[in-house]
């Protein structure tokens, strides 16, 4: 709404009324038809207090024509602006007190009796109503509100109805979001829940028409900083770096297709189509929606297939190619629907890469036995032996792990703070942090796992963190939240703090927000890009991503690794491969590293446990660069222990992704 307001010189109230107008137009069009003239809305407005000792609210009203007869969203907004300008002029000239004082003319008993008689005789049905509806837009608190220690997350506003007016729309802002309440008379509005969908679509229509405003910037030590772009991405699981955006599932076709491609070689799979729905998310990692929409996410797979096709003649003389990519729009039901489409309509052999924020189709794909490869950030990856995450399929978001407590103590912190969003995945992450710190004797001096996603003010939490003495903060938030946290900490004069963050390992993003991210720690569960010369797999990945004109980043690497594991399974299954043989072949791999990209994964165990402990590289942002925080360039992966570890090690061992001799330090079990 703010973007529309700035773009067209409107007020927030103008935008609210325009959105309501669009919603009403859609709603009325689906019923008995649109009226030929605008609807009339009563817009309550506050009056100033009568004196310093006055109490209670003094309310008047303006009357606005809502142009539901206009089909263009921009025309509706312009018409609303015009009618509200006139209404404000009348209100100012006549005086808001006139309407407010009308009820004071008769005695209260006489007035209330008259109102009841008016309703009982149905006089509102005998003449056109004065107004058709009421639309209230109220500014709410712009800071978090608490009651008995519990944080208010949502508002449910309600407003009164007037005789003859069948609908009340009350809009209240809270932090950086708005909350809408509908109160309707079912005699006049037969389906009171129906306007909700049109309201969302009307709001979206306004955004699509809105030109991009100029962003404010400030100069800091000769560098222009752009504010972080807000993202709708679901928060990451604990300990797993996330830099993606929209969700996507891609697949290759089940049946072999012969095609005279690349010198007459037959192909495995032909064609592809653009993702359903198109880009739906902004990118929290780099703040650029254009680089990581769903049609971009499979680029790592495309690059690996190009590499195999051009350097090795494909697999068994057949080329590899993606045939279809579908966007699940980050909803479980859509995720299941798209998976069924791939399997039952397209007839795919395998699904990759699955880079979804919600993996509702996991159980279905497991039951169908479809080899599935992708991004392990949900516990659903443990649903079947045919589901293969990029770092193993074991994921226990709320479990206790020693890695972050070890890092905190290693840095000399005995008090920590934990921050997370209200989103279930983020809350589980935060609770897992708290339990892990408690288990290993690190005091959680402050915790807040009820932050609203997209918050704009975290000063209250920062003050409590400052007062608690905690200087190590483990977060389950996206990059934008962490940047706001860092700015608030510095504004509050907090020095020498360390933030452990699940997102933000992105060189382009760091170059833009170096000051804000200075000192941040990030967990990286692959060989860091800064150590590329020590990993043949990373070197090949960069070479073929650049050949294809694709962006080199973590999300692309996930697709590359998924394709590499899939091809490994194909080769292991033999030329007459089947789904079952591919799954069996992958599950026989014991030390898979994707040519030195990942710490070794033992797929004979990786569906139900870590290998045999969680090992990760940790980098720190320093002076606009990422540097290794623990271990050495030869052995960058720190292995503090697994979920069954009871005591933190004095010195956690480190291993290499390329030197099997180092793996014996942590290898355990049969």
What attributes does this structure have?
670 residues, alpha/beta, 9-stranded mixed sheet, 5-stranded mixed sheet, 20% strand, globular
How would you describe what is shown here?
The protein is α/β, with parallel strands linked by helices. Helices cover 33% and strands 20% of the residues. The chain is built from 19 helices and 26 strands. Strands 18, 19, 20, 21, 22, 23, 24, 25 and 26 form a nine-stranded mixed β-sheet that branches. A five-stranded mixed β-sheet has the order 2-1-3-6-7. Strand 23 (614-622) and strand 24 form a beta hairpin. Helix 7 packs across helix 16. It is globular, with a radius of gyration of 29 Å.
Beta fraction = 15-25%
Write down the overall mean pLDDT.
77
How many helices? The count is 19
Multimeric state of these chains?
A: single chain
- What is the SS-derived class? alpha/beta
Largest sheet: 9 strands, mixed
List segments where confidence is low: pLDDT < 50 over at least 5 consecutive residues: 93-108, 202-247, 252-293
Q: Using the CA coordinates, give the radius of gyration.
A: 29 Å
Say how many strands there are: 26
In a few lines, what is going on in this structure?
The chain has 670 residues and is of the alpha/beta class.
Blueprint of the fold:
Blueprint: H1 2-8, H2 12-29, E1 39-46, E2 59-66, H3 73-94, H4 96-102, H5 108-120, E3 133-138, E4 146-147, E5 150-151, E6 167-174, E7 177-184, H6 196-209, E8 218-220, E9 223-225, E10 248-253, E11 257-261, E12 265-268, H7 299-312, E13 319-320, E14 324-327, H8 332-346, E15 348-354, H9 362-368, E16 372-374, E17 387-389, H10 403-410, E18 415-421, H11 424-439, E19 443-451, H12 459-468, E20 472-476, H13 479-491, E21 498-501, H14 507-512, H15 514-517, E22 521-524, H16 536-547, H17 554-573, H18 579-586, E23 614-622, E24 625-628, E25 637-641, E26 654-655, H19 660-663
Parallel strand pairs: 1-3, 3-6, 12-13, 15-16, 16-17, 18-19, 18-20, 20-21, 21-22
Antiparallel strand pairs: 1-2, 4-5, 6-7, 8-9, 10-14, 10-15, 11-12, 22-23, 23-24, 23-25, 25-26
């Amino acid at each position: 709404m703010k973007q529309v307001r700035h773009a067209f010189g409107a007020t927030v109230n103008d935008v609210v009324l325009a959105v309501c107008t669009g919603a009403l137009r859609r709603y009325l069009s689906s019923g008995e038809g649109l009226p030929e003239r605008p609807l009339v809305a009563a817009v309550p407005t506050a009056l100033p207090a009568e004196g310093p000792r006055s109490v209670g609210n003094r309310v008047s009203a303006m009357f606005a024509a809502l142009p539901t007869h206009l089909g263009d969203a921009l025309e509706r907004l312009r018409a609303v602006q015009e009618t509200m300008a006139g209404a404000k002029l009348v209100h100012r000239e006549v005086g808001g007190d006139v309407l407010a004082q009308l009820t004071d003319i008769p005695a209260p008993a006489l007035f209330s009796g008259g109102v009841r008689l008016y309703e009982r005789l149905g006089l509102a049905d005998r003449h056109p109503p004065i107004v058709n509806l009421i639309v209230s837009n109220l500014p709410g608190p712009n800071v978090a509100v608490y009651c008995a220690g519990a944080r208010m997350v949502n508002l449910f506003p309600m407003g009164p109805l007037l005789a003859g007016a069948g609908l009340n729309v009350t809009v209240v802002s809270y932090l950086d979001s708005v909350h809408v309440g509908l109160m309707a008379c079912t005699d006049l509005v037969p389906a009171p829940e129906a306007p909700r969908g049109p309201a969302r679509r009307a709001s979206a229509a306004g955004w699509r028409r809105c030109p991009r405003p100029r962003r404010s910037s400030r100069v800091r030590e000769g560098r222009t900083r752009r504010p972080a772009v807000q993202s709708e991405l679901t928060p990451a699981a604990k300990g797993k770096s996330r830099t993606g955006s929209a969700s996507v599932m891609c697949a290759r076709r089940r049946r072999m297709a012969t095609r005279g491609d690349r010198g007459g070689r037959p192909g495995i799979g032909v064609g592809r189509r653009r993702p359903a729905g198109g880009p739906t998310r902004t990118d929290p990692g780099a703040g650029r929606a254009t680089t990581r929409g769903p049609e971009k996410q499979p680029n790592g797979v495309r690059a690996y297939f190009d590499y195999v096709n051009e350097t090795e003649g494909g697999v068994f003389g057949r080329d590899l190619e993606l045939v279809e990519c579908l966007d699940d729009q980050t909803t479980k039901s859509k995720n299941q629907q798209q998976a069924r489409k791939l399997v039952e309509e397209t007839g795919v052999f395998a699904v990759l890469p699955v880079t979804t924020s919600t993996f509702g189709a996991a159980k279905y794909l497991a039951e169908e036995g479809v080899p599935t490869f992708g991004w392990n950030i949900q516990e659903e990856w443990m649903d079947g032996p045919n589901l293969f995450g990029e770092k193993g399929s074991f994921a226990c978001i709320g479990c206790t792990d020693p890695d972050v407590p070890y890092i905190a103590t290693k840095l000399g912190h005995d008090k920590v703070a934990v921050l997370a969003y209200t989103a279930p995945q983020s809350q589980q992450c935060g609770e897992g942090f708290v339990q892990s710190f408690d288990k290993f004797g690190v005091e959680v001096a402050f915790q807040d796992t009820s932050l609203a996603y997209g918050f704009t003010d975290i000063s209250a939490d920062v003050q409590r963190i400052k007062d608690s003495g905690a200087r190590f903060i483990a977060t389950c938030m996206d990059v934008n939240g962490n940047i706001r946290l860092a700015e608030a900490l510095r504004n509050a004069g907090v020095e020498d703090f360390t933030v452990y963050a699940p997102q933000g390992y992105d060189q382009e993003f760091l170059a833009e927000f170096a000051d804000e991210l200075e000192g941040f720690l990030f967990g990286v569960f692959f060989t860091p890009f800064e150590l590329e010369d020590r990993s043949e797999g990373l070197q090949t990945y960069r070479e073929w991503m650049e050949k294809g004109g694709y962006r080199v980043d973590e999300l692309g690497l996930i697709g590359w690794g998924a394709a590499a594991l899939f091809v490994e399974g194909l080769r292991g299954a033999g030329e007459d491969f089947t789904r079952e043989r591919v799954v069996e072949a992958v599950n026989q791999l014991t030390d898979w590293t994707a040519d030195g990209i990942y710490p070794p994964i033992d797929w004979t165990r990786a569906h139900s446990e870590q290998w045999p402990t969680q090992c990760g590289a940790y980098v720190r942002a320093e002076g606009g660069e990422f540097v290794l925080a623990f271990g050495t360039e030869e052995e960058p992966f720190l292995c503090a222990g697994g979920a069954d570890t009871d005591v933190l090690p004095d010195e956690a061992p480190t291993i290499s992704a390329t030197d099997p001799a180092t793996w014996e330090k942590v290898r355990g079990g049969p």
